[in-house]
Fold:
Amino acid sequence: MREPSENDRLKERAILLAVLLDVSVFIPYAFTVWHIGSLAMLAELLRGGLLLIVEGAALVTLRAVHRGKTYFYEFGVGKLERMLSAGIGALLIGAAGFIVARALGGRVPPELTPAWAAMAVGLVSYNLLANVLPLAPLWRATKAGASIIVLSQFRARLAKAVASVTVVACVAIDALSPDRQLARIADAVGGLVGAGFMVVVGAQMIYEALPDLLDRALAEPLQLKVTAALAASFRDYEQLIGVRTRRSGTVPHVEITVAFDPARTLADVGAVTRAMRRTVRAAIPEADVVVIAVPLDEAAPSRSA
Structure:
């Protein structure tokens, strides 16, 4: 087990702060929603609860990666992360449909007592603060080194903060306005805005997960870097048999198969494959690169992916 660096700990603390703030607001939020039935708060609760699962999984994954505890999974835990992300995305879209159906049902929210009105406004305000506070630590963590996990958490937190502004306004109108028709409209608008954010975030999570789950090849810019690295050493091997690439979570995987004359020594072949691996890693620092050497077969066609 390796010791995490200071930058690693900075990323972990940033996500941990976001998780703790979300946990602190979840239970009182759920109790208030159950009592007053605010649609805007219900949308916020469903979205926040589902994304809290993603945040917790991201923190556990990040800690495991930083401490080298993923050795049982030779290709990393990227697919597990993406499967969870896609599942949560589908749940977000389903929850958004539920909110829309409730909003279009014409429900008139009950008039709240001053105590419950103050509780509702206070909670949504605190939730807005809880969504804003982690932004600065997460932003600093993204600057401490490339991490798709941290960057995705920053984007999700920013989206939640923007959505929370609308929820605060709508809940304030719902809780404080004596006009019940205006309160109904505000509650419905808050719910629909929350549902809209849920659909956008859920669809994005599914869209980002599918390529990894289907083992899609790396994007063209990274493919060009691999090609350039192969071109730099094309005189050192006899034949390019194939190139296969995919991404597993945050890690690009590159598998290169090249053929050598059987008369060449193992030391010579090993020096070439190590040099090729270093060249690709220099072009794509975060990549997991494997170079496979096979005997030259004149009848074998070259292939690439």
User: Anything to note?
Assistant: Residues 79 and 252 are 12 Å apart (CA to CA). The longest helix spans residues 180-213.
